[in-house]
Amino acid sequence: MTNRIHLLISASALLFLSCNSSLLQSRISEGTIEYALSFPGADPDGLMAGMLPEKTILSFNEDMQAAEVSAGMGLFRT
């Protein structure tokens, strides 16, 4: 029973102290994230291999975000 009380007090203190850290208060207001895409089950020599996208770029600021995907050897872009 005493171990549970100590665990509860420790967990509460950790939660309280971590929620007030400056990490949560500093925010990134804009930036770009680039994701590499892979298709583990796809045949690299297949007919549609050139149509699969290789990366996605997500750009964001405080008001908006946009994701760009280029596929089909650069022919299709969203």
Overall number of structural domains:
1
Number of beta-strand segments: 4
Overall SS class: alpha+beta
Rg, alpha carbons: 23 Å
Percentage of helical residues? 25-40%
Number of distinct helices: 2
Residues in β-strands, percent: 25-35%
Biggest β-sheet strands, sense, barrel: 4 strands, antiparallel
> Could you name the ranges where pLDDT drops below 50 across 5 or more consecutive residues?
none
If strands are numbered along the chain, what order do they take across the biggest sheet? 1-2-3-4
- How are helices and strands ordered from N to C? HHEEEE
Kindly state the mean pLDDT as a whole number?
78
What best-fitting shape do the alpha-carbon axes yield?
elongated
The span between the termini is 59 Å
Oligomeric state of the chains present here: single chain
